[in-house]
């Protein structure tokens, strides 16, 4: 394989080409895949992963990661439902959920950036703590939604497309702009590339990391609200394993685990690959047991690709 071909296949353009080819093959070989109903269902199924991937991209690009996202999504959904039921106001419930999600993210950021605790240990601890809070608050049971208007957050449509899909697309655009066109995005990539050089250049690295985790918590809250609306209840065990799917999607999309490299286009493609893989398995009636194997293989392939990209991008000498 020539060097130029290798660069194409491992680069962002190569990822899009591979995705387009795979999409074409699946469209021609899997019955009912390319129907409007299935396409909308596929996009609906990746809303949670897609939203959380927007900010996980920033965490990974800055050499951090967050294992607590699944617990934060479940906890925020629980808070939204319980606060709405208790106050009789959906708006207050949503604000409470957004505040709690942001607080969890900010707590992660402060512990990691100010107290210099490893992100793996910190977010692993937070994952357990926040999931525990969700279980304690609900006594381990699902909490039903009292106000049917809450359902409209996920059931409503605009131009025949469900609202959550529009929300996901909006977040893709906003965080893509944030990454590529703002000082915040450039500083994030700089920190991931070389934290010490960024600090010497005047970037407040600790403050940036706290902001990134706070954004992660806020977006998890949005995802939790939409998920609770879609499943018509607050579920303390919702979004279990979400963190692995989100990290897989980001790394598949070219976000480097070593930091310093990320593109929004790549993340979108990675999210769609995850969604298509699960959708095809469902259409082909593949048992859920085998789907775990496939998800694991996708994660392994994602890490392998990240390693190959790092090797390809390393200067020779």
Automatic annotation (TrEMBL):
Pfam families: BPD_transp_2 (PF02653). Keywords: Cell membrane, Hydrolase, Membrane, Plasmid, Transmembrane, Transmembrane helix. The keyword Ion transport does not apply. GO terms for molecular function: hydrolase activity; transmembrane transporter activity. It is an enzyme of class 3 (hydrolase). It is found in: Cell membrane. InterPro entries: ABC_transp_permease. Its EC number is 3.6.3.17. The keyword Zinc does not apply. It is a multi-pass membrane protein. GO terms for cellular component: plasma membrane. The chain crosses the membrane at residues 14-34, 40-60, 90-112, 119-138, 158-179, 210-232, 265-283, 289-308. This is Monosaccharide-transporting ATPase.
